[in-house]
Amino acid sequence: MGARRVLVGVCGFPEARARLYRDLDLVEVQRTFYQPPAPETAARWRAEAPPGFVFTLKAWQLVTHEPASPTYRRLRERLPPRALAECGGLRWNRTTRMAWARTLEVAAALEARAVVVQTPARFGPTAANLRRLRRFFTEAPRAGLRMVFEPRGAGWEDALLRALAAELDLVIAVDPFLRPPPARRGLRYLRLHGRPAYRYRYRYTDEDLRALAAIVGGGPAWVLFNNLHMAGDARRFRALLAAG
After folding, report:
1. What DSSP character marks residue 5?
2. Quick one: which of 52, 63, 38 has its CA closest to 9?
3. Considering only Cβ atoms within 10 Å of each terminal Cβ, which end of the chain, N or C, has fewer?
4. Nearest Cα to 59, choosing from 134, 143, 125?
């Protein structure tokens, strides 16, 4: 599995883990975004998976999202007001350093290969945000992980993303049906959220999957479905690639 140049997987565990480990190549762990699991839990997932199965994970929301985000409703950890005031926006301070360290603990237990840093739509490419972004990706320890950046919202032009990827050694995550992957050598990290944009109930058609195969080409690429039908769509796409 490790030698394949196109790996296909899902975001989260939409069904029994054993079935995903059997049928797919990778899983992007989502729980780390809302509230990181105990490292012991992540280590159990790693032990359950076959050799060569790839894990990635999302960075804890304390790094990227501010407390007004509705995603904080799923935060179980109680933080004092001072710490909450320091959260989000790729700030680099006591609280976000702690959140990043916790993310890396889970990554180590998973033997993860990449961490996804997903910023919300309100985090646009302003001068202040770009300064924070550059500082974060320069100073945050990587611990051997690929850094994957997925900006949401408007304003992130392809030329800017290509420049940031080259400057900061980033992989830019995109939904290839919304925008083409940045034209940069190396790994492409594709996250598919449904069509049209973020229609999560969408089931990808055979025509969609053939178009996706043409986009992916010979790789290297990691393709992650993040729609309601993600497991079935991922299996169908993997079978399509295997059939050549």
Report:
1. S
2. 52
3. C
4. 143
pLDDT band at residue 225 under the 50/70/90 scheme: very high
The answer to whether residues 8 and 237 touch, using CB atoms and an 8 Å cutoff, is yes
d(CA 232, CA 82): 44
The C-alpha atoms of residue 12 and residue 14 are separated, in whole angstroms, by 6
> Each residue of 165-217: pLDDT tens digit?
999 999 999 999 998 887 657 899 999 999 887 788 999 999 999 999 999 98
**Residue 11 structure tokens:** 């975001």
With beta carbons less than 8 A apart as the criterion, state whether 99 and 91 touch.
no
| First vs last C-alpha separation in the chain | 16
Rounded to whole angstroms, the Cα distance separating 28 from 59 reads 11
CATH of 6-243, one of 3.30.2130.30, 1.20.810.10, 3.20.20.410, 3.40.800.20: 3.20.20.410
Angle at 57 between CA 68 and CA 200, to 5 degrees: 65
Geometric angle at alpha carbon 184, from 178 and 186, rounded to 5°? 105
DSSP assignments along 59-122, one per residue: PPHHHH--TTSGGGGG--S---HHHHHT-STT--SHHHHHHHHHHHHHHHHHT-SEEEEEE-TT
For 78, counting Cβ atoms within 10 Å of its Cβ (0-12 exposed, 13-18 middle, 19+ buried), the class is exposed
